[in-house]
């Protein structure tokens, strides 16, 4: 039955292939059908890679005007994921990853500790430099045993930045501690009973083996974290982009050490020797994370990367709103056809496809998944939100934020990583060939407002198709080929629009 459903979609794209037509999202619309599925009841569970799950099939792009820790944290809390961009030093990027991984914890398996000789000023500086959102640090003595805990209250009451942690901390005798086997429910009950906010876990030798924080446990017990996309230890899921070559292998190791869940080898042309060599080397190291590769737009490329060991494949060469690759280089396949061809090529190989670029509205997400994607990667749609890097600027058109392609001249001049993404790492800055533009987008407020609308549209589309799950949408999807008149008919027409909910 599953194969029969897929054959309908296959027949449509084969017909387009015979006509030598490649289609983008505006060229097609999904056919509706008999449905017993209400939008509110659909499941949006999907995957970014072989082992990285998503509660909603939406990921923020690895762009310097889109994803750093604040966006990645927000996306994971909404059920998706963020990919930290690589236009940072390896240390800076690892710090961003660490900020995401330490933002929310069921149990903190490796607490960030300080030494009893460290000064309050040194600890404050470290907290600021590494972007920690927390204030509680276990204090270790010279033998590596737990001596005490320095908290926000201790910082506030400290008389001087030169005061040592040993003097400023709450001493061990005043702490409430528990054994390593304590479960979250037991920890929560103990903290409430003792009216404490932090519970260090120590072994028989007074060595720290983990830590619970009351605020995180409260979220867990209340069910507030149900939608959160977390790992087995309760940490938020996060990805990070890397390039190719020896230096990027070192970057990857640093990112994995920081807790990165999935590495994304992020290049403009993923089907290349450097990418494949880097992928194979990372696989040889048996890292404890998945490796996604991009970007490509042809089925043969997808199959090659899957065989080489890719755990997920990013599809899209030129569909982004700020990308000029197709205009400058004359290459690329329209996105709906590219997604279908790549998903067909890896069918049965358990390698998820990520549709990266070209999404202009929630209907495009439904179409991308129907064509074979497991999730979509968004840039422009998220670029105007509070969580993106950069300041809000006032203009005659309203409040805006900067949004630029990683192939834009500004991005490549600012970052070697951006130049390398477009294979111009050794080109002098005055001879760069840009494959993107710099722009502004209207400020939209918190990202959760944007995601709410996109998820709502996807749910609605699944209801029309009669698909209760992402997998069922991929199976049942069939398409109408749109004419220009049909596209015009699909948008508001013959009226003066006084309110646009987009």
Task: Walk me through this protein's architecture.
Helix 2 links the parallel strand 4 and strand 5. The protein has an eight-stranded parallel β-barrel with strand order 4-5-12-13-14-15-16-17, surrounded by seven helices. A four-stranded mixed beta sheet has the order 6-7-8-9. Helices cover 37% and strands 17% of the residues. The radius of gyration is 25 Å and the shape is globular. The chain folds into two domains: 2-103 and 229-483, Aldolase class I (TIM Barrel, Alpha-Beta Barrel); 114-217, Roll (CBS-domain), CATH 3.10.580. Helix 2 runs parallel beside helix 3 (90-101), helix 7 (184-194) crosses helix 8 and helix 14 (362-371) crosses helix 18. It has 20 helices and 21 strands. With 502 residues, the chain is α/β, with parallel strands linked by helices.
What global shape is seen? Answer: globular
Mean pLDDT across all residues, rounded? 92
Instruction: Compute the number of structural domains.
Output: 2
- Please list the strands of the largest sheet in the order they lie side by side: 4-5-12-13-14-15-16-17
Radius of gyration, taken over Cα atoms and rounded to an integer in Å: 25 Å
Please estimate the helix content. Answer: 25-40%
| Secondary-structure-derived class | alpha/beta
Looking at how many chains there are and whether they match, the oligomeric state comes to: single chain
CATH superfamily of the largest domain: Aldolase class I
> Which fold name fills CATH's third level, the topology of the largest domain?
TIM Barrel
Distance between the termini: 37 Å
Q: CATH top level of the largest domain? A: Alpha Beta
Low-confidence stretches: none
What is the tally of beta strands?
Answer: 21
Please, how many helices? 20
**Strand-residue proportion:** 15-25%
**Largest sheet features:** 8 strands, parallel, barrel
Can you name the CATH architecture of the largest domain? Alpha-Beta Barrel
């Amino acid at each position: 039955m599953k194969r029969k459903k897929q054959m309908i979609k296959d027949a449509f794209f084969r017909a387009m292939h015979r006509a030598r037509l490649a289609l983008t999202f505006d060229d097609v619309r999904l056919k509706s059908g008999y449905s017993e599925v209400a939008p509110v009841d659909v499941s949006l569970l999907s995957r970014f890679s072989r082992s990285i799950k998503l509660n909603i099939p939406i990921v923020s792009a690895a762009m310097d005007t889109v994803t750093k820790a604040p966006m990645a944290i927000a996306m994971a809390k909404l059920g998706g994921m963020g990919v930290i961009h690589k236009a940072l030093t390896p240390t800076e990027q690892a710090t961003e990853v660490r900020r995401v991984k330490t933002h929310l914890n069921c149990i903190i398996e490796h607490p960030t500790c300080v030494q009893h000789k460290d000064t309050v000023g040194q600890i404050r500086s470290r907290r600021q430099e590494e972007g920690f959102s927390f204030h509680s640090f276990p204090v270790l003595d010279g033998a590596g045993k737990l001596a005490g805990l320095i908290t926000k209250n201790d910082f506030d009451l400290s008389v001087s930045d030169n005061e040592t942690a040993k003097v400023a901390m709450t001493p061990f005798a005043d702490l409430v501690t528990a054994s390593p086997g304590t479960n979250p429910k037991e920890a929560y009950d103990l903290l409430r009973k003792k009216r404490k906010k932090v519970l260090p876990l120590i072994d028989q030798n007074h060595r720290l083996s983990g830590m619970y924080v009351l605020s995180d446990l409260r979220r867990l017990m209340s069910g507030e974290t149900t939608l959160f996309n977390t790992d087995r230890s309760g940490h938020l899921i996060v990805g990070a982009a890397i390039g190719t070559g020896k230096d990027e292998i070192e970057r990857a190791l640093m990112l994995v050490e920081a807790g990165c869940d999935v590495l994304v080898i992020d290049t403009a042309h993923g089907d290349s020797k450097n990418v494949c060599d880097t992928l194979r080397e990372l696989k040889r190291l048996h890292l404890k994370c998945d490796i996604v590769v991009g970007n490509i737009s042809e089925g043969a490329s997808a199959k090659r990367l899957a065989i080489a060991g890719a755990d997920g494949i990013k599809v899209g060469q030129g569909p982004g709103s700020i990308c000029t690759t197709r205009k400058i280089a004359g290459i690329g396949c329209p996105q709906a056809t590219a997604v279908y061809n790549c998903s067909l090529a890896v069918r049965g190989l358990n390698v998820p496809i990520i549709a990266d670029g070209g999404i202009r509205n929630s209907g495009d997400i439904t179409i991308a998944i129907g064509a074979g994607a497991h999730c979509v990667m968004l840039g422009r749609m998220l670029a105007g939100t509070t969580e993106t890097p950069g300041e809000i600027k006032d203009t005659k058109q309203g409040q805006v934020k900067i949004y630029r392609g990683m192939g834009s001249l500004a991005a490549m001049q600012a970052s070697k990583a951006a130049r390398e993404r477009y294979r111009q790492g050794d080109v002098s800055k005055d001879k760069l060939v840009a494959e993107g533009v710099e722009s502004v987008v209207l400020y939209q407020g918190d990202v959760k407002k944007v995601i709410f609308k996109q998820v709502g549209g996807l749910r609605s589309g699944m209801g029309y198709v009669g698909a209760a799950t992402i997998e069922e949408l991929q199976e049942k999807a069939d398409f109408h080929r749109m004419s220009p008149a049909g596209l015009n008919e699909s948008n508001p027409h013959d009226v003066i629009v006084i309110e646009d909910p987009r």
